[in-house]
Amino acid sequence: MNFRSTRHTDEPQGQATFGMANLRSQRTGLPFIVFISQRDGAQHDVRVKVSPNPKVRNAQMGSYALRPYRFVDGHRLGPGEERAQEAWVEKNLDVLVRYWTGDIAYTEDALELLEAIWNAQRPGPDSAQSHAPCEDQASSA
Predict the structure, then answer these.
(1) Domain extents for the chain?
(2) Residue 16 predicted with pLDDT over 70
(3) Where is the stretch described as Disordered (predicted)?
Protein backbone atom coordinates (compact mmCIF):
# COMPACT_ATOMS: atom_id res chain seq x y z
CA MET A 1 0.00 0.00 0.00
CA ASN A 2 1.41 3.41 -0.95
CA PHE A 3 0.70 6.50 1.10
CA ARG A 4 1.47 10.00 -0.06
CA SER A 5 2.62 12.57 2.42
CA THR A 6 0.14 15.37 3.01
CA ARG A 7 2.62 17.29 5.15
CA HIS A 8 3.16 20.81 3.93
CA THR A 9 6.70 22.07 4.30
CA ASP A 10 5.44 25.64 4.74
CA GLU A 11 3.56 24.76 7.95
CA PRO A 12 5.06 26.49 10.99
CA GLN A 13 7.17 24.05 13.00
CA GLY A 14 5.55 22.94 16.23
CA GLN A 15 1.97 23.85 15.28
CA ALA A 16 -0.79 21.63 16.64
CA THR A 17 -1.95 19.17 14.01
CA PHE A 18 -4.34 16.27 13.65
CA GLY A 19 -1.47 14.07 14.85
CA MET A 20 -1.63 15.48 18.37
CA ALA A 21 -3.63 13.72 21.08
CA ASN A 22 -5.30 15.98 23.60
CA LEU A 23 -5.32 14.72 27.19
CA ARG A 24 -8.12 15.82 29.49
CA SER A 25 -7.54 16.94 33.06
CA GLN A 26 -8.99 13.68 34.42
CA ARG A 27 -6.14 11.77 32.74
CA THR A 28 -3.28 14.09 33.75
CA GLY A 29 -4.42 15.67 37.02
CA LEU A 30 -3.54 19.07 35.54
CA PRO A 31 -6.01 21.97 35.30
CA PHE A 32 -5.44 22.38 31.53
CA ILE A 33 -5.26 20.25 28.39
CA VAL A 34 -1.96 18.61 27.41
CA PHE A 35 -1.29 17.69 23.79
CA ILE A 36 1.18 14.90 23.00
CA SER A 37 2.42 13.72 19.63
CA GLN A 38 4.85 11.53 17.80
CA ARG A 39 7.89 13.13 16.19
CA ASP A 40 6.56 13.09 12.61
CA GLY A 41 9.62 14.76 11.12
CA ALA A 42 9.97 17.54 13.71
CA GLN A 43 13.51 18.92 13.95
CA HIS A 44 13.31 19.47 17.73
CA ASP A 45 13.32 17.01 20.65
CA VAL A 46 10.20 15.81 22.46
CA ARG A 47 7.71 18.50 23.43
CA VAL A 48 4.18 18.85 24.72
CA LYS A 49 1.73 21.63 24.08
CA VAL A 50 -0.77 22.99 26.58
CA SER A 51 -4.05 24.85 26.25
CA PRO A 52 -6.83 25.94 28.59
CA ASN A 53 -9.34 23.99 26.46
CA PRO A 54 -9.32 21.15 23.91
CA LYS A 55 -10.19 23.38 20.97
CA VAL A 56 -6.94 24.29 19.25
CA ARG A 57 -6.40 28.04 19.22
CA ASN A 58 -2.78 28.88 18.51
CA ALA A 59 -2.91 32.10 20.55
CA GLN A 60 -3.79 30.05 23.66
CA MET A 61 -1.29 27.23 23.17
CA GLY A 62 2.08 27.00 24.84
CA SER A 63 4.92 24.67 23.94
CA TYR A 64 7.26 23.01 26.45
CA ALA A 65 10.41 20.99 25.80
CA LEU A 66 10.82 17.95 28.02
CA ARG A 67 14.59 17.26 27.96
CA PRO A 68 15.31 19.45 29.85
CA TYR A 69 11.89 20.71 30.90
CA ARG A 70 11.50 24.33 29.81
CA PHE A 71 9.07 26.76 28.21
CA VAL A 72 9.65 27.14 24.46
CA ASP A 73 7.04 29.47 23.00
CA GLY A 74 3.41 30.55 22.87
CA HIS A 75 1.14 31.08 25.86
CA ARG A 76 3.05 30.46 29.08
CA LEU A 77 1.51 28.74 32.10
CA GLY A 78 1.63 30.35 35.52
CA PRO A 79 4.44 29.30 37.89
CA GLY A 80 2.25 26.85 39.87
CA GLU A 81 0.90 25.29 36.69
CA GLU A 82 4.42 24.93 35.29
CA ARG A 83 5.56 23.16 38.47
CA ALA A 84 2.56 20.81 38.29
CA GLN A 85 3.19 20.09 34.61
CA GLU A 86 6.88 19.48 35.26
CA ALA A 87 5.92 16.93 37.97
CA TRP A 88 3.57 15.22 35.49
CA VAL A 89 6.29 15.22 32.80
CA GLU A 90 8.84 13.71 35.23
CA LYS A 91 6.36 10.99 36.21
CA ASN A 92 5.59 10.16 32.56
CA LEU A 93 8.82 11.05 30.75
CA ASP A 94 9.58 7.50 29.63
CA VAL A 95 6.12 7.07 28.07
CA LEU A 96 6.19 10.52 26.45
CA VAL A 97 9.62 9.88 24.90
CA ARG A 98 8.69 6.37 23.69
CA TYR A 99 5.49 7.74 22.12
CA TRP A 100 7.45 10.64 20.52
CA THR A 101 9.99 8.26 18.98
CA GLY A 102 7.33 5.79 17.80
CA ASP A 103 8.43 3.00 20.14
CA ILE A 104 4.83 3.23 21.37
CA ALA A 105 3.04 3.20 18.03
CA TYR A 106 -0.57 3.68 19.08
CA THR A 107 -2.08 6.57 21.00
CA GLU A 108 -4.35 4.28 23.03
CA ASP A 109 -1.28 2.35 24.24
CA ALA A 110 0.37 5.58 25.39
CA LEU A 111 -2.84 6.69 27.11
CA GLU A 112 -3.00 3.46 29.11
CA LEU A 113 0.55 4.01 30.37
CA LEU A 114 0.28 7.69 31.31
CA GLU A 115 -0.35 8.48 34.98
CA ALA A 116 -2.01 11.46 36.60
CA ILE A 117 0.01 13.43 39.13
CA TRP A 118 -2.29 12.55 42.02
CA ASN A 119 -2.04 9.16 43.72
CA ALA A 120 -5.77 8.38 43.95
CA GLN A 121 -7.58 6.34 41.30
CA ARG A 122 -8.22 8.30 38.14
CA PRO A 123 -11.87 9.35 37.67
CA GLY A 124 -13.69 8.16 34.57
CA PRO A 125 -14.21 10.43 31.56
CA ASP A 126 -17.81 11.14 32.59
CA SER A 127 -16.92 12.06 36.14
CA ALA A 128 -18.17 15.47 37.24
CA GLN A 129 -15.65 15.43 40.06
CA SER A 130 -12.79 17.89 39.70
CA HIS A 131 -9.33 16.78 40.79
CA ALA A 132 -6.95 19.69 40.57
CA PRO A 133 -3.72 18.65 42.28
CA CYS A 134 -2.58 20.36 45.43
CA GLU A 135 0.92 21.81 45.53
CA ASP A 136 2.49 19.07 47.64
CA GLN A 137 1.08 16.36 45.36
CA ALA A 138 2.58 18.12 42.35
CA SER A 139 5.96 18.65 44.02
CA SER A 140 6.23 15.10 45.42
CA ALA A 141 5.45 13.25 42.18
Answers:
(1) 18-104
(2) no
(3) 122-141
